[in-house]
Amino acid sequence: MKAPRLPRPRAIKPPPLPGPPPGPFRPGFWRSPLRGPWLTSVLGSILLVLITVVAVTGLISHSAYQPDVVGGYNATVGPKGDIGPLISLPSGAPSWAYALSQGAHITVGLIAIPVLLAKLWSVIPRLFAWPPVGGPSKSIERLAVLLLVGSGLFEFATGVLNIQVFYPWHFGFVRAHYYGAWIFISALALHFCTKLPTVRRAYRERGVLRPLRADLARTRPEPYEPDGLVASSPASPTISRRGLLGLVGAGSLALLIANLGESAGGPLRRIALLAPRGRVWGTGPNDFQVNKTAEFVGVTQLASDPGWRLSVAGAHAVKLSRPQLMAMTQHTYDLPIACVEGWSTTQRWTGVRLRDLAALVGASPAAILEVHSIQPTGPFTHTAYPASQIRDHRSLVALSVNGVDLSLDHGYPARIIIPALPGVHCTKWLGSMQFLET
Amino acid sequence: MVGFRRVYGSNPLHLLAHLGVFFIAGWAISQILGAGFAINWIAWFLGAALLHDLVLLPLYSGLDRGLQIGVGRSRRGPPAGTYPEDGAPDWIRPSPLNYLRVPLVVSGILLLVYFPVILGYASKNYRHDTGHALAGYTRNWLLICAGLFLFSALVYSVRVVRSRPPRPARVDEQPGD
Questions:
Q1: Phi, psi of A420 (to 5 degrees)
Q2: Residue A256 burial by CB count (10 A; 0-12/13-18/19+): exposed, middle or buried?
Q3: CB neighbours of residue A139 within 10 Å
Q4: What's the pTM?
Q5: How many A×B Cβ pairs under 8 Å?
Q6: Which of B109, B114, B129 sits opposite A165 (nearest CB)?
């Protein structure tokens, strides 16, 4: 039987106990009329595409260091427990393949930042959902979202600071960024699966692009649902949805223009006003970007010593002076130096082919190569290369660049230059090379 | 199955998928923490989320709210350029809000991303790595900001001029309502 309805004024209705604390935990606190499943779906869809590019190019970069070459010199994250390279550049890839992949990793990562910020803005009311802990499934979901947001922001923050060589932390960047990526990728894949029905529903009900047709005067909140993203008492809009997406796009475009030139080069380099490595230092043949100067790594004296000899060992061993190396058949190729930080620059390198040196010491075509720099300390003073890279006719011990001797900063007296290889593996200030039969 | 759903709140696949992700995350975290500096890494992992959710987002939301209030105040009263005594249609000057938001947001994002080079935090490592002093980034950022605000002001001016009501004389010729 229905009880007779009593006229009860709202004011004396007792609040449900325990109610949310004041402030952001109350549903009425969040008032933007733009928040809703459609907006979050659009931002999430864009982000998914961008982050997929960043993840794939990131894994390519991990493989490009060739951590699986015998000897373990190249393992940037420590081989113990790592699952090994997953996605690699195809062998025989064009020389610019790593520059393109890593340029995309950095550039697409940067342009994703405004989208990521907008995406997080669009779901911020859910952070303050009340009660904070629901049933087991809800609690487990919240933990997964913490992993997703924590790892996502961690990956972007550490990546952004790394390209500007600013390290306000104690942990190793490469290891933390690589394993952080696994947390991010797995949490994102799960998030994609759990949210796919919500996204499909939003697109089905509102259309994929239809809400973009509404100008400010026609911008209405999405339908309210309790415990959702839509404000319970929305304010009147101050920007349309397409305006908000345009604002995000303007942020991404600005980052694109500000940074792309350090990877793409050409006239774009001049407008890459904020790219950490966007500058050309002068018009000289050695004035292109350098990573780690001779002075900084303390190799100046050793590298300028006329008594320098390159030890090359295989079936037998030789010691070669610079004039002796210059007397061997010289080859010239235009090859990029492509840094993991995203910048790259293509220069004309001249030197001796690795495979000629292998033949000189009687190494077989299956031999791998280990090189040591005369650089006294620091990472990447030892590097190993697989047989396929030694066989590549463009792989050189470079002695000169753009028609002149290498400068000290670019690796004088001799350096490695190999197509589609991360810059730090193009070892500078060569000291010794060992061809090892496997 | 129904019992599981009642206790857990969702289907078993939901639990399995989440446990799978926690397993991968656990493996990744142990790989990171195995290299030491555990507290520092955890502080960064949680700090990034907390700093964004509890500092950055409230900060820019608050700034935007302040901007809305400021713009709203400046637009109170009869808008400039209307001719009420001539009986012209009410004309409200277009809001400058979004013409301020765009340059503010874009220059803010550039600062957020490039603050180490703009504010010189990276200067020591930059010199070691490049052999050159870290210079010019502050100037470049300020130039970009200036360009963005000037461009936005120009677009806004055009918008204001184009939205002005027709002259009162022409209004008189229109049929009254």
A1: 55, 40
A2: middle
A3: 13
A4: 0.91
A5: 200
A6: B129
